[in-house]
């Protein structure tokens, strides 16, 4: 006895549906976008820190010393905010995709080793 297409769709698991692959790839793209955003925050923070260190090195006194210190502090704040934001977004991704069905785990750098 041959089963109809509707019967096959009712008994097939979530991994066999065509929408599952699309959703899984979308989740993977979201993880990768989160990683790219974190790297952009790190790159920007490091640029501020380099500008601050350059101000210290070129003109180690006066107003440029203050400008250098402020630039370094801004750089540290940017990197800290980026890391916090990446962690929050990673948590949202994990909530949307439980561990057994979730994205393939491209973002191992944001995961805690338990």
- SSE order in H/E notation? HHH
Which stretches are poorly predicted, pLDDT < 50 over at least 5 residues? 1-13
How many DSSP E strands? 0
The largest pleated sheet is described as: none
Query: What's the tally of helices?
Result: 3
Describe the structure.
With about 110 residues, the protein is an all-alpha fold. It has a domain at about 25-95. Helices cover about 70% and strands about 0% of the residues. α2 (about 20-60) packs antiparallel against α3.
List keywords for this structure.
single chain, 114 residues, mainly alpha, 3 helices, 0% strand, disordered N terminus
In terms of topology, how is this protein built?
Blueprint: H1 5-11, H2 18-58, H3 63-96
Helix pairs in contact: 2-3
